[in-house]
Amino acid sequence: MASEIVAAQASHTPMSPEEISEVVRRVFDILQKLQSIEAGQAEGNNHGDAPEHMNPQDSIQRNRVICLVCGKEFKLLSNRHLALHGMTSRDYKLKYGLPLRQALSAKSLTQARRKIAKEKGLGAKLVAYRRSHQP
Questions:
Q1: Position 50 confidence tier, pLDDT thresholds 50, 70, 90
Q2: What is the residue extent of each domain of the chain?
Q3: What is the pLDDT of residue 44?
Q4: Pick the CATH number of 52-135 from 1.10.630.10, 3.60.21.10, 3.40.50.300, 1.10.10.1550
Q5: Residue 96: which residues within 8 A CB-CB, separation 6 or more?
Q6: Coil, strand or helix: which one is 56?
Q7: Residue 28 burial (CB count, 10 A)
Q8: Do 51 and 67 meet the contact criterion of CB atoms below 8 Å apart?
């Protein structure tokens, strides 16, 4: 059943092989939990998909970034969303041990932005601006 669910999702959303295997595992775990709840055997097992047990570096994936506070998935973890949790991006990075220069966006989005910045020569323009405005 898990493979059928993931196959349906993969037919609509491009996923890497690593993402497919991760989604299969997560869907399988969720289906097992649902089955145990239906059978009346839920033991209160609260680990697995809970974001607080996820490695912070693993929350930033190729096509999504997972909020470690609530578990929602985004292309970009915005300041607006983090404000709902009462924190800034700096607070979030410090709390979860992420580098302060780490982008809180999907790796594919970060790469696309980097490529556009290089094509427009933004790095060279910044260097020139800084040189012209030094005291």
A1: very low
A2: 1-49, 52-135
A3: 40
A4: 1.10.10.1550
A5: 56, 59, 68
A6: helix
A7: 15
A8: yes
